[in-house]
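#lab-general

N.A. 3:47 PM
ok so I finally got the sequence cleaned up, no stray characters, all 143 residues accounted for. can someone with queue access submit it? mine expired

B.Y. 3:52 PM
send it over

N.A. 3:53 PM
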Amino acid sequence: MPDVKLERDFPVPVETLFAYVTEPARLMEWFGPEGTFLADASMDFTRPGPWHAVMIGRESGNRFKVSGQVTQVRPLTSVGLTWGWHDDADRRGAESHVTFAVARTDTGSRLTIDHRDLADAEAVASHTAGWIATLAKLQRILH
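B.Y. 4:20 PM
back already:
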């Protein structure tokens, strides 16, 4: 199945970047593509367990719900979770897998997002665009 892999460097310590990809209050600041806001979310990626987020398009008003399970947490290194979009009747669709990996660099830290097991090329294209737009928000916060 197709995958998406993106890397971004940030001028912050690993501890800071890891907090932004795991702690609920920090995730609320950047999670979701540009042009959306989180209307409802239960995201604690500091420990295994369920999570969900409802994103609303600021201009369109479109509602997007995604949910899954945090499957593994390796402090200051990585977080793994399952990912499934919900349809308009709140039925969860195909499941894919996301890993946020954090590594130390000479100038701060690097975040690698690896989104695996996407259904097809269309899913790869839409998730790539979504993650790029989401990372732009995180870059503004951490630069």
